[in-house]
């Protein structure tokens, strides 16, 4: 039986403890334009000395953030992911869509975590600031407080 340390956060923008880092332009905040039909490319680059898993999270107005795309899953062409593409490159995981819709207006977060190795899994949180653009063009700035729940999770090797 080995001990696995695990930290979980409400809002996720993660850099690892082994020299990993994730970079998203514009201070980790991207405001989606409301003009329909525009193409979209959200860049996410990272550096890591260990294998990583990458993720995109989305937060729609008045909703909590949730997992949008992960690097290990097939691209889903249903629901709110329809038309979005995420292709994993050597050190980046960009998210794109050829023609946006008003319903795509949201805050998008790029995240990463090291794969489970040597019995350790660590996540480190940087609290983001979120700007929400409403249809009138008014920009509101919101600071989100993040909590983490620490503890140990026990894993058995098979």
TrEMBL record:
Entry-linked Gene3D superfamilies: Immunoglobulins
Chain segments carrying region Disordered: 71-98
UniProt xrefs under Pfam families: V-set
Keywords of this entry: Adaptive immunity, Immunity, Immunoglobulin domain, Receptor, Signal, T cell receptor
Domain of life: Eukaryota
Recorded GO CC terms: T cell receptor complex
InterPro entries listed in its UniProt record: Ig-like_dom, Ig-like_dom_sf, Ig-like_fold, Ig_sub, Ig_V-set, TCR_variable_region
Ig-like domain span: 25-113
GO BP: any one term: adaptive immune response
PANTHER family cross-referenced by the UniProt entry: T CELL RECEPTOR ALPHA VARIABLE 18, T-CELL RECEPTOR ALPHA CHAIN V REGION
Protein name, entry field: Ig-like domain-containing protein
Record organism: Gopherus evgoodei
